[in-house]
Automatic annotation (TrEMBL):
One of its GO terms (molecular function) is calcium ion binding. Ca(2+) binds at residues 136, 182, 215. Homodimer; dimerization is reversible, and the dimeric form is the active one. One of its GO terms (biological process) is lipid catabolic process. Its EC number is 3.1.1.32, 3.1.1.4. The active site is at 172 (proton acceptor), 174 (nucleophile). This is Phosphatidylcholine 1-acylhydrolase. It comes from the Bacteria. One of its GO terms (cellular component) is cell outer membrane.
Amino acid sequence: MKLFCVKKIHFFLLFFSLSTQSQVKDLFSKPAELHTISERWELTPESSNGTFLITPYKSIYILPVDWYSSPNEQPYSGNGQPEYIAPPGTNYNNIETKFQLSFKTKILHNFIFGKGDLWVGYTQVSNWQIYNESLSRPFREINYEPEVIFNYPLNFNVLGFKMRMAGVAFNHESNGKGLPFSRSWNRIIFHLGFDRNNWSVYVRPWLRLRSQKDDNPDITQYIGRGDINIIYTNNKSIFTLTGSNNLNFNKNRGNTAVSWSYPIVGNLKGFLLVSHGFGETLIDYNNLQTTIGVGISLIGPL
């Protein structure tokens, strides 16, 4: 299972590396133009760039300083199997470096009813104990998230917002580690996209796909069964609020993250990211903590 996941990750990395230098240059030369849902997802003929061009997906950022309140020094899995019992804890620092890379490319254009598009996406989040000299500055956690996304453009009013798109994705996320630290899950994620003036809203409920050997069978009880992402642009500032919830009123859990970005020079933006809850990374899916990170971003949310 783990070898299969690693092969899939290598496939996505190879796939994206086949893009030309001009495509990468175009990605970073015009990010400021991608400030609406329609532009980011090419929902109109005017915004369409065809297929096999690498474009932004989620935010791209680096947080040289990322503080978290409860270092997860002896992670455990809810499946209760002996092979998932971790050895005595590691002395992690409370401050580390975190960065995220995220890209997507369209592989089929207008292939259903003359409108629907098929995309593949890849997101990688890395937590680096760069200040921890005693442990030789290791990467504490790296989460790999390839996915296949079907997206269909829409255009009608809902409660004062304009619904711009609807779709579904097959999403795999894993940390590529062996036992007892292995964590992974597969989801079918449904999504709706709305906007109104300076507001953009994404709603994403998901269904978790069970596997025969489950690293974390109780993950939805902590990370949740869906999330909502609200983005507000005010002059040059971009504010985001992302919340997930398990929809369990007896043992209510989830995660809330807020961010703020502001231009520094050119396309470079200052970036602040604060979160509280479960699932800041996969290894932390059942670990409650607060994080505060300060850094820069190249590509903002949408």
